[in-house]
Amino acid sequence: MSIRLTRRAALVSSVAGAAALPSIGWAQAAANDGASLADQVDAFVRQAMAAFPDQPAVSVALVKDGQAVLTRGYGVRAIGGAAVNEHTLFAIASNTKAVTCAALAILIDEGKVKWDEPVRTYLPGFSLSKPELNDMVTVRDLVSHRIGFGLGAGDLLFWPNSDRTRAEIMAAVPHVPIEDSFRTSYHYCNLMFVVAGEVVAAASGMAWEDFVQTRILDRLGMSETLPLMTAADPAKSALPHGRLGPPLRYQGEMQTIGRSIQEVWNWSSAGAAGGFVTTPVDWAKWIAVQLARGELPDGTRLYSEARANEMWRPNIIISNSAGPTETLPGRAIASTYATGWQVQDYRGERMITHGGGAPGYVSGTVLIPGRNAGFSYFTNAEESFLTRALRSGIADIVMGKAGFDWIADGRRLKAEGDAKSVAAAAEIDAKQAAGAPPSLPLAAYRGIWRDPWYGDIVIEARDLQLWLRFSRTPALQGPLEPWDGDTLRTRFTDRREEDVFIAFTLENGVPVSATMKAVSPDADFSYDYHDLRLTKV
């Protein structure tokens, strides 16, 4: 397995350096005024960009004592293109989850929803693959990643871009497998945030995106932000970038991978889990209201202080450790998930944070309540070690901590991860070269293969070869070729997507069922191939 920083780590983990490195002298003491703090952060971001020269763009918002002291864009919208600025749109994916929870908090203040009321109170048809949970799962459970679904379970319903409606996603929920016990362990789950968005809709009488527009964005004056990326103007957007190989995804030359945000990231059906696009200027307003516990500049409230405190109250443990050391200065004693936010200790203080990952985008929001400060970083590429450096490096500046070079440590870890990924790719190819031939003629594997929650996957003959096609996911199609015995592998024509192994089970010389898994050990967890249980129709 590669040590590459996964999207899960980019979303919701506290990552620290693995070895002591020389200090670069940042933040010998916390800045006493916003201007000084902004200057330090600006200089740090510029150094990080220089250390990761393939990164097209970064944008940063920094809020201190209720004021936006820095909102700035760095780099270009696309390789060889125009510069970004503080008004350039970025996809921020799962940073959206805190907004969905704020929408629920508003409805709780109005007496229309309760955190600990069963979901069936608001969605009577809600059901799960473990029927004994149907009347037990509460609204709080939906947004705490503690129901028992595996990591990314059900994400193939909308990742990569799918043609499913929100109603079709909801109809699939009862069939998505639950692998763990209820409320015992943390497993990141986008699917339940889709359900949470439907609770907002049911309780308010408005679609999720209409509610957050009128009740949150309009009230905060966030006029540049869009709840759904489908309305994002490409001319005002930072375009997505990534590495498409060879030998594997996340390797090779950096390139533009879409002509718009929505080309690679259309989660309109799953907007409550990750639909937002925004700018540093607008997101600074969101950070400010978070730090103010729901109070707006005019003294009115978006939601009550009681709701604010609830959203920062831990609901499930993500991880725990012995705490920070000299070589692991950012390691948390306890990392937890609250309600749309991760809550942890960081260098002896409380940190409230969340990340977002989409094809071509990695982002994050960090609140440090004890300093009355917060910041965000948005990027238009998949360079997670850069965003790791931004997250921890800017936090250290805000907190006045020095002594660890997050930039150099990120470069080291990236180099190690790249080497392991290249070795893994070579091993995959070597196994294919030495693999046994299929036990049947390739034509025997043709047919319609059905999974209870995803639907149909078709294997057919095309141009004298086998062709695999996911029926509801246009990008997931391409030729099938032998790999080892009755396991075949894809070569998807859209190289932005992760190839898959499909392993067939035979009975009486006939293939009757199949399982899948991603070919690459670096594949994003939302390529939820491993939860598919296919039977031949």
Descriptive tags:
eight-stranded antiparallel sheet, alpha+beta, 537 residues, 13 helices
Characterization of the model:
The structure is a single chain. With 537 residues, the chain is α+β, with helices and mostly antiparallel strands. Strands 2-1-12-11-10-9-8-7 form an 8-stranded antiparallel beta sheet, with helices on both faces. The chain has an 8-stranded antiparallel β-barrel with strand order 13-14-15-16-17-18-19-20. A hairpin with a 2-residue loop joins strand 18 and strand 19. The longest helix is centred in the C-terminal third of the chain and has 29 residues. The protein is globular and about 75 Å long. It starts with 6 loop residues before the first helix and ends with a strand. The protein is built from 13 helices and 20 strands. 28% of the residues lie in helices and 22% in strands. The N terminus is likely disordered.
Number of strands: 20
Low-confidence stretches: 1-5, 12-29
Shape: globular
Radius of gyration: 23 Å
What is the rounded distance between the termini? 34 Å
The biggest beta sheet is recorded as: 8 strands, antiparallel
Largest sheet strand order: 2-1-12-11-10-9-8-7
| Helix share, percent | 25-40%
What would the average pLDDT be, to the nearest integer? 94
Q: Tell me the β content.
A: 15-25%
Compute the number of helices.
Answer: 13
Broad structural category: alpha+beta
